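Sequence in, structure out. First:
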Amino acid sequence: MANSVPMNVTDPTSLYRVRDGAYAADLLIAAVTEFDVFTWLAVHGPARAEVLRAALRWAERPADVLLTYAAALDLVSRDLAAGDVVELTALAREHFVAGSAYDLRTYYGSLAERPAAREFARVLRTDEPAPWASAISDGDADRAGSGNGGARDWSGRLADVEFASRITAAMDARGAFLAPALARATADLPVGRLLDVGGSSGIYAAAVLEQHPTASAAVFERAPVDQAARTLLAERGQNDRIDVVTGDMFVDPLPTAFDVHLYSQVLHDWDRSRVEHLLAASYRALPPGGWLLDHDTHVDADKTGPLPVAEYSALLMHSTPGKCWSTGELAAIAEAVGYIDITVRPTAADRSVLLARVPR
Protein backbone atom coordinates (compact mmCIF):
# COMPACT_ATOMS: atom_id res chain seq x y z
CA MET A 1 0.00 0.00 0.00
CA ALA A 2 1.38 3.40 -0.97
CA ASN A 3 2.50 6.10 1.44
CA SER A 4 2.69 3.99 4.60
CA VAL A 5 3.68 5.91 7.73
CA PRO A 6 7.30 5.37 8.88
CA MET A 7 7.91 3.87 12.32
CA ASN A 8 8.09 6.58 14.97
CA VAL A 9 11.18 6.74 17.19
CA THR A 10 9.72 8.58 20.22
CA ASP A 11 6.76 7.84 22.49
CA PRO A 12 4.15 10.64 22.35
CA THR A 13 1.95 9.19 25.12
CA SER A 14 2.56 12.19 27.38
CA LEU A 15 1.42 14.52 24.60
CA TYR A 16 -1.79 12.55 24.05
CA ARG A 17 -2.44 12.79 27.79
CA VAL A 18 -2.07 16.58 27.84
CA ARG A 19 -4.68 17.00 25.12
CA ASP A 20 -7.03 14.23 26.26
CA GLY A 21 -6.94 15.33 29.90
CA ALA A 22 -7.52 19.02 29.19
CA TYR A 23 -10.94 19.10 30.86
CA ALA A 24 -10.33 16.89 33.88
CA ALA A 25 -9.26 19.65 36.28
CA ASP A 26 -12.49 21.53 35.62
CA LEU A 27 -14.52 18.45 36.51
CA LEU A 28 -12.77 18.24 39.89
CA ILE A 29 -13.23 21.98 40.43
CA ALA A 30 -16.98 21.60 39.81
CA ALA A 31 -17.20 18.59 42.14
CA VAL A 32 -15.47 20.48 44.94
CA THR A 33 -16.87 23.98 44.56
CA GLU A 34 -20.36 23.47 43.16
CA PHE A 35 -21.36 20.28 44.96
CA ASP A 36 -18.94 19.86 47.90
CA VAL A 37 -19.23 16.13 47.24
CA PHE A 38 -16.42 15.05 49.54
CA THR A 39 -17.89 16.84 52.54
CA TRP A 40 -21.20 15.15 51.73
CA LEU A 41 -19.47 11.76 51.76
CA ALA A 42 -17.74 12.59 55.04
CA VAL A 43 -21.14 13.25 56.62
CA HIS A 44 -23.30 10.61 54.90
CA GLY A 45 -20.93 7.98 53.49
CA PRO A 46 -20.09 5.32 52.66
CA ALA A 47 -22.99 5.43 50.21
CA ARG A 48 -24.16 3.70 47.08
CA ALA A 49 -23.57 5.75 43.95
CA GLU A 50 -27.31 5.92 43.29
CA VAL A 51 -27.88 7.47 46.74
CA LEU A 52 -25.11 9.99 46.15
CA ARG A 53 -26.55 10.86 42.74
CA ALA A 54 -30.02 11.37 44.15
CA ALA A 55 -28.77 13.57 47.00
CA LEU A 56 -26.72 15.83 44.70
CA ARG A 57 -29.18 15.61 41.80
CA TRP A 58 -26.71 14.17 39.35
CA ALA A 59 -27.49 12.22 36.19
CA GLU A 60 -26.10 8.70 35.99
CA ARG A 61 -23.61 8.98 33.10
CA PRO A 62 -21.74 12.10 34.23
CA ALA A 63 -21.78 10.89 37.83
CA ASP A 64 -20.17 7.64 36.76
CA VAL A 65 -17.40 9.54 34.96
CA LEU A 66 -16.79 11.76 37.98
CA LEU A 67 -16.67 8.82 40.40
CA THR A 68 -14.22 6.97 38.16
CA TYR A 69 -12.03 10.07 38.05
CA ALA A 70 -12.25 10.54 41.82
CA ALA A 71 -11.31 6.89 42.36
CA ALA A 72 -8.36 7.22 39.97
CA LEU A 73 -7.18 10.24 42.01
CA ASP A 74 -7.50 8.19 45.23
CA LEU A 75 -10.19 10.53 46.55
CA VAL A 76 -12.77 7.75 46.89
CA SER A 77 -12.81 3.98 46.87
CA ARG A 78 -15.44 2.31 44.72
CA ASP A 79 -16.82 -1.21 45.25
CA LEU A 80 -18.91 -2.34 42.27
CA ALA A 81 -19.39 -5.83 43.71
CA ALA A 82 -21.17 -4.35 46.72
CA GLY A 83 -23.52 -2.32 44.55
CA ASP A 84 -21.17 0.54 43.66
CA VAL A 85 -20.48 1.70 47.20
CA VAL A 86 -18.45 4.91 47.31
CA GLU A 87 -16.30 5.72 50.34
CA LEU A 88 -14.08 8.67 51.15
CA THR A 89 -10.30 8.13 51.32
CA ALA A 90 -7.87 9.72 53.75
CA LEU A 91 -6.59 12.02 50.99
CA ALA A 92 -10.02 13.52 50.32
CA ARG A 93 -10.93 13.62 54.01
CA GLU A 94 -7.86 15.71 54.83
CA HIS A 95 -8.00 18.11 51.88
CA PHE A 96 -11.57 18.36 50.55
CA VAL A 97 -13.78 18.16 53.65
CA ALA A 98 -15.09 21.10 55.65
CA GLY A 99 -13.34 21.55 58.97
CA SER A 100 -10.02 19.95 58.02
CA ALA A 101 -6.89 21.87 58.95
CA TYR A 102 -5.62 21.30 55.40
CA ASP A 103 -8.86 22.04 53.56
CA LEU A 104 -8.18 23.04 49.93
CA ARG A 105 -11.77 23.79 48.96
CA THR A 106 -11.31 27.58 49.01
CA TYR A 107 -8.12 27.18 46.98
CA TYR A 108 -10.10 25.32 44.31
CA GLY A 109 -12.88 27.85 44.75
CA SER A 110 -10.64 30.58 43.36
CA LEU A 111 -11.09 28.83 39.96
CA ALA A 112 -14.81 28.16 40.29
CA GLU A 113 -15.66 30.78 37.65
CA ARG A 114 -13.86 28.90 34.90
CA PRO A 115 -16.44 28.42 32.10
CA ALA A 116 -15.75 24.70 31.75
CA ALA A 117 -16.28 24.15 35.49
CA ARG A 118 -19.71 25.78 35.21
CA GLU A 119 -20.43 23.68 32.12
CA PHE A 120 -19.59 20.52 34.05
CA ALA A 121 -22.04 21.52 36.79
CA ARG A 122 -24.79 21.69 34.16
CA VAL A 123 -23.78 18.41 32.55
CA LEU A 124 -23.80 16.65 35.92
CA ARG A 125 -27.33 17.86 36.58
CA THR A 126 -28.84 17.48 33.10
CA ASP A 127 -26.74 14.85 31.26
CA GLU A 128 -26.79 17.17 28.24
CA PRO A 129 -23.31 17.62 26.69
CA ALA A 130 -21.84 21.10 26.54
CA PRO A 131 -20.61 22.61 23.25
CA TRP A 132 -17.54 20.97 21.74
CA ALA A 133 -14.38 22.62 23.10
CA SER A 134 -16.62 25.14 24.92
CA ALA A 135 -17.03 26.78 21.54
CA ILE A 136 -19.59 29.38 22.58
CA SER A 137 -19.86 31.65 25.58
CA ASP A 138 -21.16 30.44 28.92
CA GLY A 139 -24.35 32.44 28.60
CA ASP A 140 -25.03 31.23 25.09
CA ALA A 141 -24.49 27.63 26.20
CA ASP A 142 -27.63 27.89 28.34
CA ARG A 143 -29.66 28.79 25.26
CA ALA A 144 -28.04 26.57 22.64
CA GLY A 145 -29.05 23.04 21.87
CA SER A 146 -26.56 20.56 23.23
CA GLY A 147 -26.83 16.81 23.58
CA ASN A 148 -30.12 16.33 21.75
CA GLY A 149 -29.31 17.51 18.26
CA GLY A 150 -28.87 21.24 18.90
CA ALA A 151 -26.90 23.42 16.55
CA ARG A 152 -23.79 23.33 18.74
CA ASP A 153 -23.90 19.61 19.47
CA TRP A 154 -20.66 17.85 18.50
CA SER A 155 -22.43 15.24 16.36
CA GLY A 156 -24.74 17.79 14.74
CA ARG A 157 -21.82 20.00 13.82
CA LEU A 158 -20.40 17.21 11.65
CA ALA A 159 -22.98 18.21 9.05
CA ASP A 160 -20.91 21.36 8.54
CA VAL A 161 -18.34 20.61 5.85
CA GLU A 162 -15.62 22.78 7.39
CA PHE A 163 -16.07 21.33 10.89
CA ALA A 164 -16.25 17.77 9.51
CA SER A 165 -13.01 18.28 7.56
CA ARG A 166 -11.28 19.74 10.62
CA ILE A 167 -12.39 16.89 12.91
CA THR A 168 -11.47 14.27 10.29
CA ALA A 169 -8.00 15.77 9.95
CA ALA A 170 -7.64 15.81 13.75
CA MET A 171 -8.59 12.15 14.03
CA ASP A 172 -6.20 11.35 11.18
CA ALA A 173 -3.34 13.06 13.04
CA ARG A 174 -4.18 11.14 16.22
CA GLY A 175 -4.18 7.86 14.33
CA ALA A 176 -0.71 8.17 12.79
CA PHE A 177 0.83 6.74 16.00
CA LEU A 178 -2.14 4.76 17.29
CA ALA A 179 -3.13 2.91 14.12
CA PRO A 180 0.10 0.91 13.64
CA ALA A 181 -0.06 -0.13 17.31
CA LEU A 182 -3.59 -1.42 16.78
CA ALA A 183 -2.49 -3.28 13.67
CA ARG A 184 0.39 -4.96 15.50
CA ALA A 185 -1.85 -5.97 18.39
CA THR A 186 -4.30 -7.71 16.04
CA ALA A 187 -1.88 -9.05 13.44
CA ASP A 188 -2.74 -12.66 14.30
CA LEU A 189 -6.43 -12.29 13.41
CA PRO A 190 -7.68 -13.57 10.06
CA VAL A 191 -8.74 -10.52 8.04
CA GLY A 192 -10.25 -10.84 4.60
CA ARG A 193 -12.47 -7.79 4.32
CA LEU A 194 -12.54 -5.18 7.10
CA LEU A 195 -15.32 -2.64 7.68
CA ASP A 196 -14.10 0.44 9.55
CA VAL A 197 -17.36 1.71 11.05
CA GLY A 198 -17.30 5.44 11.70
CA GLY A 199 -13.74 5.19 10.47
CA SER A 200 -13.20 8.87 9.69
CA SER A 201 -10.09 9.09 7.48
CA GLY A 202 -9.61 5.33 7.22
CA ILE A 203 -6.18 5.51 8.85
CA TYR A 204 -6.88 2.52 11.12
CA ALA A 205 -8.13 0.37 8.28
CA ALA A 206 -5.01 1.27 6.29
CA ALA A 207 -2.74 0.21 9.14
CA VAL A 208 -4.50 -3.14 9.52
CA LEU A 209 -4.13 -3.78 5.79
CA GLU A 210 -0.38 -3.24 6.12
CA GLN A 211 -0.37 -6.39 8.26
CA HIS A 212 -2.64 -8.27 5.82
CA PRO A 213 -1.38 -7.74 2.24
CA THR A 214 -4.23 -9.67 0.59
CA ALA A 215 -7.05 -8.05 2.56
CA SER A 216 -9.27 -5.12 1.58
CA ALA A 217 -11.37 -2.67 3.57
CA ALA A 218 -14.09 -0.06 3.48
CA VAL A 219 -14.82 2.95 5.66
CA PHE A 220 -18.48 3.39 6.61
CA GLU A 221 -19.14 7.10 7.17
CA ARG A 222 -21.95 9.60 6.80
CA ALA A 223 -21.77 12.73 4.66
CA PRO A 224 -19.82 14.99 4.59
CA VAL A 225 -17.19 12.99 6.53
CA ASP A 226 -17.30 10.40 3.74
CA GLN A 227 -15.95 12.93 1.26
CA ALA A 228 -13.19 14.02 3.63
CA ALA A 229 -12.23 10.36 3.95
CA ARG A 230 -12.14 9.87 0.18
CA THR A 231 -9.88 12.91 -0.18
CA LEU A 232 -7.41 11.75 2.49
CA LEU A 233 -7.32 8.17 1.17
CA ALA A 234 -6.65 9.42 -2.36
CA GLU A 235 -3.91 11.77 -1.14
CA ARG A 236 -2.19 8.84 0.58
CA GLY A 237 -2.63 6.53 -2.39
CA GLN A 238 -4.73 4.10 -0.35
CA ASN A 239 -8.00 4.23 -2.25
CA ASP A 240 -7.05 1.19 -4.31
CA ARG A 241 -7.69 -1.14 -1.36
CA ILE A 242 -9.98 0.97 0.83
CA ASP A 243 -13.44 2.01 -0.36
CA VAL A 244 -15.74 4.52 1.32
CA VAL A 245 -19.37 3.54 1.84
CA THR A 246 -21.74 6.37 2.67
CA GLY A 247 -24.26 5.65 5.40
CA ASP A 248 -25.52 6.50 8.87
CA MET A 249 -24.53 3.77 11.32
CA PHE A 250 -27.58 4.48 13.48
CA VAL A 251 -30.06 4.45 10.59
CA ASP A 252 -28.73 2.26 7.79
CA PRO A 253 -27.96 -1.46 8.08
CA LEU A 254 -24.25 -2.17 8.07
CA PRO A 255 -23.05 -3.77 4.83
CA THR A 256 -22.41 -7.48 4.82
CA ALA A 257 -19.54 -9.38 3.14
CA PHE A 258 -17.03 -8.18 5.75
CA ASP A 259 -15.49 -10.62 8.22
CA VAL A 260 -14.08 -8.01 10.64
CA HIS A 261 -15.79 -4.90 11.97
CA LEU A 262 -13.59 -2.22 13.52
CA TYR A 263 -14.78 0.57 15.79
CA SER A 264 -11.77 2.74 16.53
CA GLN A 265 -12.50 5.40 19.13
CA VAL A 266 -16.13 5.49 18.10
CA LEU A 267 -18.08 3.93 20.96
CA HIS A 268 -16.78 6.46 23.47
CA ASP A 269 -18.82 9.17 21.74
CA TRP A 270 -22.18 7.51 22.44
CA ASP A 271 -24.54 6.54 25.22
CA ARG A 272 -25.32 2.97 26.24
CA SER A 273 -28.38 2.50 24.02
CA ARG A 274 -26.43 3.49 20.90
CA VAL A 275 -23.43 1.36 21.87
CA GLU A 276 -25.81 -1.57 22.22
CA HIS A 277 -27.31 -0.70 18.83
CA LEU A 278 -23.92 -0.70 17.11
CA LEU A 279 -22.71 -3.97 18.62
CA ALA A 280 -26.00 -5.63 17.66
CA ALA A 281 -25.84 -4.17 14.12
CA SER A 282 -22.36 -5.60 13.66
CA TYR A 283 -23.45 -8.96 15.03
CA ARG A 284 -26.22 -9.14 12.43
CA ALA A 285 -23.91 -8.16 9.57
CA LEU A 286 -20.89 -10.30 10.44
CA PRO A 287 -20.61 -13.91 9.27
CA PRO A 288 -20.24 -16.83 11.70
CA GLY A 289 -16.74 -16.64 13.13
CA GLY A 290 -16.44 -12.95 12.29
CA TRP A 291 -14.64 -10.57 14.62
CA LEU A 292 -15.63 -7.30 16.27
CA LEU A 293 -12.76 -5.00 17.31
CA ASP A 294 -13.30 -2.04 19.63
CA HIS A 295 -10.13 0.05 19.77
CA ASP A 296 -10.48 2.75 22.40
CA THR A 297 -9.47 4.22 25.74
CA HIS A 298 -11.04 1.72 28.14
CA VAL A 299 -11.69 2.20 31.83
CA ASP A 300 -10.71 -0.79 33.98
CA ALA A 301 -13.49 -3.22 34.87
CA ASP A 302 -13.62 -1.97 38.48
CA LYS A 303 -14.03 1.66 37.32
CA THR A 304 -11.15 3.01 39.40
CA GLY A 305 -8.86 4.10 36.57
CA PRO A 306 -6.41 4.25 34.96
CA LEU A 307 -6.02 7.96 35.64
CA PRO A 308 -5.23 9.11 32.06
CA VAL A 309 -8.32 7.32 30.77
CA ALA A 310 -10.47 8.74 33.57
CA GLU A 311 -9.21 12.21 32.61
CA TYR A 312 -10.06 11.67 28.95
CA SER A 313 -13.49 10.41 29.95
CA ALA A 314 -14.13 13.82 31.52
CA LEU A 315 -13.60 15.51 28.15
CA LEU A 316 -15.92 13.05 26.42
CA MET A 317 -18.60 13.43 29.10
CA HIS A 318 -18.38 17.21 28.74
CA SER A 319 -18.81 17.38 24.97
CA THR A 320 -20.46 14.15 23.76
CA PRO A 321 -23.23 11.78 24.92
CA GLY A 322 -20.52 9.21 25.71
CA LYS A 323 -17.65 8.42 28.03
CA CYS A 324 -14.74 6.00 28.22
CA TRP A 325 -16.53 2.68 28.63
CA SER A 326 -15.15 0.12 31.03
CA THR A 327 -14.04 -3.25 29.75
CA GLY A 328 -16.60 -4.82 32.09
CA GLU A 329 -19.47 -2.77 30.65
CA LEU A 330 -18.51 -3.53 27.06
CA ALA A 331 -18.03 -7.24 27.75
CA ALA A 332 -21.48 -7.41 29.33
CA ILE A 333 -23.07 -5.66 26.34
CA ALA A 334 -21.23 -7.89 23.88
CA GLU A 335 -22.16 -11.08 25.74
CA ALA A 336 -25.82 -10.02 25.85
CA VAL A 337 -25.77 -9.57 22.07
CA GLY A 338 -24.25 -13.04 21.61
CA TYR A 339 -20.51 -12.52 21.10
CA ILE A 340 -18.03 -14.98 22.57
CA ASP A 341 -14.25 -15.13 23.17
CA ILE A 342 -14.13 -11.59 24.55
CA THR A 343 -10.61 -10.46 25.39
CA VAL A 344 -8.70 -7.18 25.76
CA ARG A 345 -5.21 -6.39 24.45
CA PRO A 346 -3.13 -3.24 25.10
CA THR A 347 -2.09 -1.13 22.12
CA ALA A 348 -0.47 2.30 22.78
CA ALA A 349 -0.97 5.66 24.52
CA ASP A 350 -3.43 4.32 27.11
CA ARG A 351 -5.49 2.61 24.40
CA SER A 352 -6.50 -1.03 24.11
CA VAL A 353 -8.53 -3.22 21.80
CA LEU A 354 -11.45 -5.36 22.92
CA LEU A 355 -12.01 -8.39 20.69
CA ALA A 356 -15.26 -10.33 20.43
CA ARG A 357 -16.23 -13.14 18.04
CA VAL A 358 -19.50 -14.23 16.48
CA PRO A 359 -20.08 -17.96 17.18
CA ARG A 360 -19.68 -20.36 14.26
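Second:
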Amino acid sequence: MHILKSLALATVLLFSSQTFAAIGDVKVLPFVQSRIEGATLPADSKFDEDYYTIGKVTVTEVETPAEILEEKGDEKGLGEVIMTIEKLIALGKKIWAIIEAGRPVLNQNLMTPLSVLPKTDDPDAAFYQMEGWSAPKAVTYKVKYENLFGMTVIAFDYTVVFQYAGKYEGKGNYITGLNVKASNVSVAWGFQFDANSSLVNIANRGSKADPTAGATVQIDYKASSVMRTISTSESFHVTGKGAVTKY
Protein backbone atom coordinates (compact mmCIF):
# COMPACT_ATOMS: atom_id res chain seq x y z
CA MET A 1 0.00 0.00 0.00
CA HIS A 2 2.85 2.41 0.88
CA ILE A 3 4.53 1.57 -2.45
CA LEU A 4 1.31 2.39 -4.34
CA LYS A 5 1.00 5.72 -2.52
CA SER A 6 4.61 6.57 -3.32
CA LEU A 7 4.05 5.77 -6.99
CA ALA A 8 0.87 7.86 -7.03
CA LEU A 9 2.62 10.84 -5.50
CA ALA A 10 5.52 10.48 -7.91
CA THR A 11 3.01 10.60 -10.76
CA VAL A 12 1.54 13.83 -9.37
CA LEU A 13 4.92 15.48 -9.07
CA LEU A 14 5.94 14.37 -12.57
CA PHE A 15 2.66 15.61 -13.98
CA SER A 16 3.17 18.99 -12.36
CA SER A 17 6.11 19.68 -14.66
CA GLN A 18 3.99 19.32 -17.80
CA THR A 19 2.35 22.16 -19.69
CA PHE A 20 -1.33 22.44 -20.63
CA ALA A 21 -2.62 19.26 -22.24
CA ALA A 22 -6.02 19.28 -23.91
CA ILE A 23 -8.39 16.44 -22.98
CA GLY A 24 -11.49 17.13 -25.02
CA ASP A 25 -12.81 20.49 -23.81
CA VAL A 26 -10.86 20.17 -20.57
CA LYS A 27 -7.36 21.50 -20.00
CA VAL A 28 -5.09 20.13 -17.32
CA LEU A 29 -3.18 22.63 -15.19
CA PRO A 30 0.36 21.91 -14.04
CA PHE A 31 0.83 22.18 -10.29
CA VAL A 32 3.44 21.79 -7.56
CA GLN A 33 2.60 19.70 -4.51
CA SER A 34 4.76 19.44 -1.40
CA ARG A 35 4.37 17.46 1.78
CA ILE A 36 4.10 19.56 4.93
CA GLU A 37 7.07 18.76 7.14
CA GLY A 38 6.03 16.74 10.16
CA ALA A 39 2.42 16.43 8.99
CA THR A 40 0.45 13.41 10.17
CA LEU A 41 -3.10 12.25 9.59
CA PRO A 42 -5.62 13.63 12.11
CA ALA A 43 -6.51 11.07 14.74
CA ASP A 44 -10.21 11.40 13.89
CA SER A 45 -9.72 11.29 10.10
CA LYS A 46 -12.00 8.90 8.23
CA PHE A 47 -9.68 9.04 5.20
CA ASP A 48 -6.16 7.93 4.43
CA GLU A 49 -3.41 10.03 2.86
CA ASP A 50 -4.77 9.66 -0.68
CA TYR A 51 -7.78 11.80 0.25
CA TYR A 52 -5.48 14.74 1.11
CA THR A 53 -3.30 14.35 -1.99
CA ILE A 54 -4.21 16.12 -5.25
CA GLY A 55 -4.03 14.00 -8.38
CA LYS A 56 -5.29 16.42 -11.05
CA VAL A 57 -6.28 20.06 -11.56
CA THR A 58 -8.45 20.86 -14.57
CA VAL A 59 -10.02 23.94 -16.12
CA THR A 60 -12.75 24.15 -18.74
CA GLU A 61 -14.81 26.94 -20.22
CA VAL A 62 -18.47 27.00 -19.12
CA GLU A 63 -21.46 29.18 -19.85
CA THR A 64 -21.40 32.59 -18.18
CA PRO A 65 -24.40 33.24 -15.89
CA ALA A 66 -26.52 36.13 -17.17
CA GLU A 67 -26.37 37.89 -13.81
CA ILE A 68 -22.61 38.39 -14.15
CA LEU A 69 -23.13 40.80 -17.04
CA GLU A 70 -25.97 42.52 -15.19
CA GLU A 71 -23.88 43.39 -12.13
CA LYS A 72 -23.30 47.10 -11.60
CA GLY A 73 -20.29 48.50 -9.80
CA ASP A 74 -20.10 51.86 -8.07
CA GLU A 75 -18.85 54.81 -10.08
CA LYS A 76 -15.20 55.32 -9.34
CA GLY A 77 -12.02 56.75 -10.79
CA LEU A 78 -9.57 54.82 -12.91
CA GLY A 79 -7.29 54.03 -9.99
CA GLU A 80 -3.53 54.29 -9.80
CA VAL A 81 -1.04 54.02 -12.63
CA ILE A 82 0.40 50.51 -12.44
CA MET A 83 2.23 50.06 -15.76
CA THR A 84 3.23 52.08 -18.82
CA ILE A 85 4.80 51.46 -22.22
CA GLU A 86 5.35 53.83 -25.15
CA LYS A 87 1.73 54.19 -26.28
CA LEU A 88 -0.25 52.62 -23.43
CA ILE A 89 -0.93 53.13 -19.75
CA ALA A 90 -2.53 50.63 -17.36
CA LEU A 91 -4.57 51.91 -14.44
CA GLY A 92 -6.46 50.22 -11.63
CA LYS A 93 -5.09 47.80 -9.04
CA LYS A 94 -2.14 45.55 -9.82
CA ILE A 95 -3.06 42.64 -7.49
CA TRP A 96 -6.48 41.74 -6.14
CA ALA A 97 -7.90 38.78 -4.22
CA ILE A 98 -10.73 36.77 -5.76
CA ILE A 99 -11.03 33.97 -3.17
CA GLU A 100 -10.03 34.19 0.49
CA ALA A 101 -10.30 31.30 2.97
CA GLY A 102 -12.44 29.32 0.55
CA ARG A 103 -14.96 32.11 -0.09
CA PRO A 104 -15.40 34.53 -3.01
CA VAL A 105 -14.29 38.05 -2.19
CA LEU A 106 -17.62 39.84 -1.80
CA ASN A 107 -16.47 43.44 -2.31
CA GLN A 108 -15.15 42.96 -5.84
CA ASN A 109 -17.67 45.42 -7.25
CA LEU A 110 -16.00 48.06 -5.06
CA MET A 111 -12.58 47.29 -6.55
CA THR A 112 -11.19 49.46 -9.31
CA PRO A 113 -10.93 47.23 -12.40
CA LEU A 114 -8.08 47.42 -14.91
CA SER A 115 -8.03 49.77 -17.87
CA VAL A 116 -5.43 49.90 -20.64
CA LEU A 117 -5.73 53.31 -22.26
CA PRO A 118 -3.80 55.69 -24.51
CA LYS A 119 -0.81 57.20 -22.77
CA THR A 120 -1.56 60.90 -22.43
CA ASP A 121 -0.71 63.71 -20.02
CA ASP A 122 -4.14 63.28 -18.38
CA PRO A 123 -5.48 59.70 -18.73
CA ASP A 124 -8.64 60.54 -16.74
CA ALA A 125 -9.57 63.35 -19.10
CA ALA A 126 -8.71 61.22 -22.16
CA PHE A 127 -10.93 58.41 -20.87
CA TYR A 128 -14.02 60.62 -20.85
CA GLN A 129 -13.33 61.65 -24.43
CA MET A 130 -13.20 58.04 -25.63
CA GLU A 131 -16.01 56.41 -27.57
CA GLY A 132 -17.03 53.19 -29.32
CA TRP A 133 -16.80 50.91 -26.29
CA SER A 134 -18.24 47.42 -26.70
CA ALA A 135 -20.84 45.98 -24.39
CA PRO A 136 -19.28 44.03 -21.47
CA LYS A 137 -17.81 40.70 -22.56
CA ALA A 138 -17.50 37.78 -20.14
CA VAL A 139 -15.85 34.36 -20.33
CA THR A 140 -16.26 31.86 -17.49
CA TYR A 141 -14.08 28.89 -16.55
CA LYS A 142 -14.57 26.09 -14.02
CA VAL A 143 -11.55 24.83 -12.08
CA LYS A 144 -11.55 21.47 -10.28
CA TYR A 145 -9.04 19.84 -7.94
CA GLU A 146 -9.37 16.06 -7.72
CA ASN A 147 -7.66 13.92 -5.09
CA LEU A 148 -6.20 10.46 -5.63
CA PHE A 149 -9.62 8.93 -5.00
CA GLY A 150 -10.95 10.90 -7.98
CA MET A 151 -13.09 13.06 -5.67
CA THR A 152 -13.49 16.78 -6.42
CA VAL A 153 -12.24 18.45 -3.23
CA ILE A 154 -11.96 22.04 -4.52
CA ALA A 155 -14.10 23.58 -7.26
CA PHE A 156 -14.95 27.11 -8.33
CA ASP A 157 -15.85 29.23 -11.32
CA TYR A 158 -14.12 32.44 -12.32
CA THR A 159 -15.28 34.96 -14.87
CA VAL A 160 -13.14 37.35 -16.91
CA VAL A 161 -15.14 40.52 -17.63
CA PHE A 162 -14.06 43.51 -19.71
CA GLN A 163 -15.03 46.06 -22.35
CA TYR A 164 -13.00 46.65 -25.48
CA ALA A 165 -12.79 48.61 -28.77
CA GLY A 166 -12.71 52.02 -27.08
CA LYS A 167 -11.25 54.67 -29.37
CA TYR A 168 -9.40 57.89 -28.61
CA GLU A 169 -9.57 60.63 -31.23
CA GLY A 170 -10.97 58.03 -33.64
CA LYS A 171 -8.07 55.60 -33.32
CA GLY A 172 -6.99 52.58 -31.33
CA ASN A 173 -8.69 49.69 -29.57
CA TYR A 174 -8.44 49.99 -25.81
CA ILE A 175 -9.60 48.01 -22.75
CA THR A 176 -11.56 49.01 -19.66
CA GLY A 177 -13.40 47.31 -16.80
CA LEU A 178 -11.11 44.26 -16.82
CA ASN A 179 -11.81 42.15 -13.75
CA VAL A 180 -11.80 38.53 -12.53
CA LYS A 181 -14.69 37.40 -10.33
CA ALA A 182 -15.10 34.09 -8.51
CA SER A 183 -18.35 32.21 -7.87
CA ASN A 184 -19.65 28.74 -6.93
CA VAL A 185 -16.68 28.05 -4.66
CA SER A 186 -16.69 24.64 -2.96
CA VAL A 187 -13.92 23.46 -0.62
CA ALA A 188 -14.12 20.01 0.98
CA TRP A 189 -13.39 19.26 4.62
CA GLY A 190 -9.65 19.16 5.35
CA PHE A 191 -8.67 21.67 2.63
CA GLN A 192 -8.03 25.41 2.48
CA PHE A 193 -7.98 27.57 -0.64
CA ASP A 194 -7.09 31.13 -1.72
CA ALA A 195 -6.69 32.79 -5.12
CA ASN A 196 -5.61 36.19 -6.40
CA SER A 197 -5.14 37.90 -9.74
CA SER A 198 -2.44 40.26 -10.94
CA LEU A 199 -1.57 42.24 -14.04
CA VAL A 200 1.61 40.76 -15.56
CA ASN A 201 2.19 43.02 -18.56
CA ILE A 202 0.62 45.15 -21.25
CA ALA A 203 1.50 45.26 -24.95
CA ASN A 204 0.59 47.14 -28.11
CA ARG A 205 -0.91 44.55 -30.45
CA GLY A 206 -1.38 47.15 -33.19
CA SER A 207 0.76 49.92 -34.62
CA LYS A 208 2.12 53.16 -33.14
CA ALA A 209 -0.41 55.14 -35.17
CA ASP A 210 -3.34 52.85 -34.34
CA PRO A 211 -2.62 50.94 -31.09
CA THR A 212 -4.46 47.83 -29.95
CA ALA A 213 -4.15 47.29 -26.22
CA GLY A 214 -3.25 43.87 -24.83
CA ALA A 215 -3.14 42.82 -21.18
CA THR A 216 -1.90 39.59 -19.59
CA VAL A 217 -3.35 38.65 -16.20
CA GLN A 218 -2.11 35.80 -14.01
CA ILE A 219 -4.24 33.92 -11.48
CA ASP A 220 -2.36 32.26 -8.61
CA TYR A 221 -3.98 29.47 -6.60
CA LYS A 222 -2.82 28.36 -3.14
CA ALA A 223 -4.40 25.24 -1.69
CA SER A 224 -3.47 23.10 1.27
CA SER A 225 -4.63 20.02 3.11
CA VAL A 226 -3.54 18.72 6.48
CA MET A 227 -0.80 16.82 4.65
CA ARG A 228 0.27 18.92 1.65
CA THR A 229 0.52 22.35 0.06
CA ILE A 230 -0.51 22.73 -3.58
CA SER A 231 0.24 25.74 -5.78
CA THR A 232 -0.62 26.42 -9.39
CA SER A 233 -1.28 29.35 -11.68
CA GLU A 234 -2.67 30.17 -15.08
CA SER A 235 -2.71 33.22 -17.32
CA PHE A 236 -4.96 34.77 -19.90
CA HIS A 237 -4.46 37.58 -22.41
CA VAL A 238 -7.18 39.96 -23.57
CA THR A 239 -6.98 42.49 -26.39
CA GLY A 240 -8.69 45.71 -27.33
CA LYS A 241 -10.39 43.77 -30.15
CA GLY A 242 -12.15 41.45 -27.72
CA ALA A 243 -9.98 38.33 -27.97
CA VAL A 244 -9.32 36.16 -24.90
CA THR A 245 -6.41 33.69 -25.03
CA LYS A 246 -5.66 31.17 -22.27
CA TYR A 247 -2.13 30.02 -21.35
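Remark: The two ends are 37 Å apart (CA to CA).
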